[in-house]
């Protein structure tokens, strides 16, 4: 039962992220792309990719911090 609760909290936190942060996290952590590859794919700079990763991770941790 607790696993489902944790899974639900993580999914809610991911869904609450802004679309660009969510997409950046998915490309890096689920697809295994490098920051350079993500920057090329999203037509942005590597610095922007890193900023989105940092902000997205910070928001996810805050969103599931009570676990």
TrEMBL record:
The keyword Repeat does not apply. GO terms for molecular function: DNA binding; sigma factor activity. One of its GO terms (biological process) is DNA-templated transcription initiation. Pfam families: Sigma70_r4_2 (PF08281). Belongs to the sigma-70 factor family. ECF subfamily. This is RNA polymerase sigma factor 70 region 4 type 2 domain-containing protein. Residues 9-60 form the RNA polymerase sigma factor 70 region 4 type domain. Keywords: DNA-binding, Sigma factor, Transcription, Transcription regulation. InterPro entries: RNA_pol_sigma70_r4_t2, RNA_pol_sigma_r3/r4-like, WH-like_DNA-bd_sf. It comes from Rhodococcus wratislaviensis NBRC 100605. The keyword DNA-binding applies. Transmembrane segments: none annotated. It comes from the Bacteria.
């Amino acid at each position: 039962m607790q696993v489902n609760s944790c899974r639900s909290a993580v999914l809610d936190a991911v869904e609450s992220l802004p679309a660009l942060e969510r997409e950046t996290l998915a490309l890096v952590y689920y697809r295994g792309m490098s920051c350079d590859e993500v920057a090329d794919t999203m037509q942005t700079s590597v610095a922007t990719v890193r900023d989105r990763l940092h902000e997205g991770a910070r928001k996810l941790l805050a969103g599931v911090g009570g676990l």
